[in-house]
Design a protein that fits this description.
CATH architecture of chain B: 3-Layer(aba) Sandwich
Shape of chain A: globular
Order of helices and strands of chain B: EHEEEHEHEHHHH
Order of helices and strands of chain A: EHEHEHEHHEEHEHEHEHHEEHEEHEHEH
Radius of gyration of chain A: 21 Å
Helix content of chain B: 40-55%
CATH architecture of the largest domain in chain A: 3-Layer(aba) Sandwich
Largest sheet of chain B: 6 strands, mixed
Oligomer: heterodimer
Largest interface: A-B, 24 and 20 residues
Structural class of chain A: alpha/beta
CATH superfamily of the largest domain in chain A: Thiamin diphosphate (ThDP)-binding fold, Pyr/PP domains
Number of helices of chain A: 14
């Protein structure tokens, strides 16, 4: 792959450059620390690529505008932090139900409520899975390194388009503001996906008719088909229905669209997991502390490895179980009071001690803290 | 080969602490071809309040991105020195503003300390206090050689606002001079 340019930029900036490379041509947002640099960068990048940037009156309107632009065919994104992510939940549910491709970035900060605007946290993990009501399908990506953020936001757009589903992209104040060298690639160098559509949209009357991946073939608004989009339970036509059979099938479709395509959605990284007696399960910026802990203890002969899910929802159940099943102990560091550890406990059925390393004082979890938990 | 070199800049908001970290990281990562990560912490205030920026430079990929035992600390005021000097590596390099930081005697033996009139030089020699960060970057380059002279110069020119290049180059040279005088 040919590098277009190398820049010393933050994770937030890498999101903007990656989104452009992925084909994002619409952004609506409302500024909030520590995510504002994403909007700032999109505001001067998008016009150069024929895209549109709009600062809306609040977070609710922002996601609404992004959904609208996506319905009209544009790859769309909105970005926010904790309190703004709470505000977006209702419309996030609409995008899940109506199957509108969308990328929602949450640069996590302390909470609940306004919390700590300039400090990191990983406190929105379960909210990112279950923040909006109903049994909704969702994909959540939580990358670690700054270069990885560039590639993962591209993957977020690809998954949103391919499965016509919102993808929540979680970073935090640390890797959002951390700068490192990032190689930027043009879209011609990347594998990009576009949403499935009917071959001949004109006159298309069944916007929720599905392809073999269970994804609806929906025309864009403005392509000549007249159809309905609603948050109510609906049939293939997009119009509300009270038919129990159709409603049940819709809910199964929404679930299975993600569940049955997990192999195309999941992505993990493994470090020193072969023969490891202790496994650290870590994601996002905290994984860098875990990497350091594994490096230092590994040099001292401790058999410790790292399992790092990059797609954190759907939970990589089979991969996690396979890697961790022979471990004598699992350590789960998180900048919250223990959220993803609940998923680890569920997957591993508590066959071994599963220990959290938790911190919500706005300071990062240090490699030393993780090393202590490994050795205890 | 540098396995890991940890740098911490500390002062108050508005002194260009974070920009200095970005410039140093960019000099190392883009112009010198090393690995570098830069992080920061700051209060909710736009000006005043404590500001801290950290850079890790290495010849190998970097895992943990924050400084745990800095090899180098630059502290522009007493509060920053008191708060952020505790975990500096023994024998590490400490650059302080000679007018604003008093260093307790026991620290003089523990670290290599450079007392430089950074803020005074910005105000009286260059004539603009906003070049404080460029002055200490010049001094840091001269003292540690952790980045190349030309790499840092290019990074400064790439990051400062258009029209201020000459002023910042003047500040850069003053920083080098301040360091040379005490080395």
């Amino acid at each position: 792959m040919k590098v277009k340019e190398s820049k010393f930029i933050s994770g937030n900036e890498a999101i903007a450059y990656g989104a452009i490379a992925a084909g994002c041509r619409f952004f609506a947002g409302y500024p909030i620390s520590p995510s504002s640099e994403i909007a700032e960068n999109m505001s001067f990048l998008l016009p150069k690529y024929g895209g549109k940037f709009i600062q809306m009156e609040d977070e609710i309107a922002s996601i609404g505008a992004a959904i609208g632009a996506s319905i009209a065919g544009r790859k769309s994104m909105t970005a926010t932090s904790g309190p703004g992510f709470s505000l977006k939940q209702e419309n996030l549910g609409l995008a899940c139900m109506a199957e509108i491709p969308l990328v929602v970035v949450n640069v996590m900060r302390g909470g609940p409520s306004t919390g700590a605007p300039t400090s990191p946290a990983q406190a929105d993990i379960l909210q990112s899975r279950w923040g909006t009501h109903g049994d909704h399908p969702i994909i959540v990506i939580a990358p670690t390194m700054v270069q990885e953020i560039f590639f993962e936001i591209v993957r977020a757009f690809n998954l949103a388009e391919r499965f016509r589903n919102p993808v929540v992209f979680l970073i935090d104040e640390i890797n959002g503001h951390m700068r490192a060298k990032v190689d930027i690639y043009d879209e011609s160098e990347l594998e990009l996906w576009n949403r499935p559509k009917p071959e001949n949209p004109k006159g298309w009357k069944t916007p929720y008719k599905r392809n073999e991946e269970l994804v609806p073939l929906m025309p864009d608004f403005g392509e000549g088909a007249r159809f309905n989009i609603t948050g109510l339970d609906h049939s293939e036509t997009g119009f509300p229905t009270g038919d129990p059979k159709v409603r049940q099938q819709l809910h199964y479709f929404l679930r299975d669209k993600i569940e049955k395509n997990k192999d195309k959605i999941l992505k993990n990284e493994y470090m020193e997991v072969e023969d490891a007696e202790i496994i650290v399960v870590a994601y996002g910026s905290t994984a860098r502390s875990a990497m350091r802990a594994v490096e230092v203890l590994g040099e001292k002969g401790v058999k410790v490895g790292l399992f790092r899910p990059i797609t954190i929802f759907p939970v990589p159940e089979e991969d996690m179980y396979r890697v961790c099943k022979n471990a004598k102990k699992i350590v789960v560091p998180e900048m919250n009071l223990g959220q993803y550890i609940l998923e680890v406990e569920r997957v591993m059925k508590k066959q071994m001690p599963i220990v959290g390393v938790n911190r919500t004082d706005g300071e990062p979890i240090t490699p030393e803290q993780i090393m202590e938990a490994i050795k205890d | 080969m540098i396995e890991r070199y940890e740098i911490r800049f500390a002062g108050s908001g508005g002194q260009g602490i974070i920009t200095a970290g970005i410039i140093l990281g960019e000099a190392a990562a883009i112009y010198d071809g090393k690995f570098a990560v830069q992080t920061q912490s700051y209060g909710p205030e736009a000006r005043g309040g404590a500001s801290k920026s950290e850079v890790i430079i290495a010849d190998v990929p970097i895992s943990y991105p924050k400084a745990t035992h800095p090899d180098l600390l630059v502290a522009l005021n007493q509060e920053s020195f008191d708060k952020y000097s505790k975990d500096v590596k023994e024998g590490g390099t400490v650059v302080v503003d000679s007018d604003y930081v008093k260093v307790p005697e026991e620290f003089e033996k523990k670290f290599k300390i450079y007392h430089l009139p950074i803020i005074e030089t910005a105000r009286n020699e260059v004539g603009k206090t906003f070049v404080v960060n460029i002055i200490f970057l010049g001094a840091v380059q001269e003292i540690t050689k952790i980045v190349s002279h030309d790499g840092l110069k290019n990074a400064i020119l790439n990051r400062v606002p258009k029209g201020t290049e000459d002023l910042n180059m003047k500040a850069f040279e003053f920083g080098i001079k301040l360091a040379k005088e005490v080395m």
